[in-house]
Specification:
mainly beta; four-stranded antiparallel β-sheet
Length: 171
């Protein structure tokens, strides 16, 4: 339909549950751009103190952004920080949100061995994440099953997809 200028190095995308807004992580501008889907124009910019990598929209009405070895939960209406999730320098650039918006999982791309962490985000004070180390190497992507019970992780060697139960991170 059109192209929408957002700045240099756009990386992650997240769409609001009502599909009225698209959020764009702009790594070259240390910002998140907000696109109104009715007009396909940028209507807001949330300045960040770091280069964002990925985004996920989930409960309770939060926009999650990864980057600078952290995951932050933002108010999607104005970009103000609501919470910071505990993470290590090797967690967080890949994000996956469960369909019900209650679980957020993260992992680091391109390192060996890879690890994943899953957070229960039903409140703004989530407990410590469940973490699973050494699920292979060079993680490329994560996704969560439709019922929210399984995390799938795809990466490099040993060339397979790992399926883990989100509530325990066991196979």
């Amino acid at each position: 339909i059109t192209t929408i200028p957002v700045g240099s190095n756009p990386k992650g995308l997240a769409i609001s549950p009502d599909s009225n807004k698209v959020y764009v992580a702009v790594g070259g501008g240390s910002a998140i751009k907000v696109i109104d889907t009715a007009t396909n124009t940028v209507t807001n910019t949330f300045a960040l103190g770091f280069n964002p990598i990925n985004l996920a929209y989930g409960g309770p009405g939060r926009l999650y952004v990864s980057g600078a070895s952290t995951i932050r939960g933002l108010d999607p209406s104005n970009g103000s920080e609501i919470l910071a999730l505990p993470s290590s320098p090797y967690d967080g650039d890949i994000l996956a949100m469960s369909p019900n918006g209650q679980s957020l999982c993260s992992g680091a791309s391109g390192i060996s061995p890879s690890s994943v962490a899953c957070y229960n985000i039903t409140t703004d004070t989530p407990p410590a994440p469940l973490t699973k180390y050494n699920i292979g190497s060079n993680l490329h992507t994560l996704d969560i099953s439709g019922d929210g019970s399984l995390l799938y992780a795809a990466g490099g060697y040993p060339y397979y997809v790992t399926a883990l139960y989100i509530d325990s991170l066991n196979q």
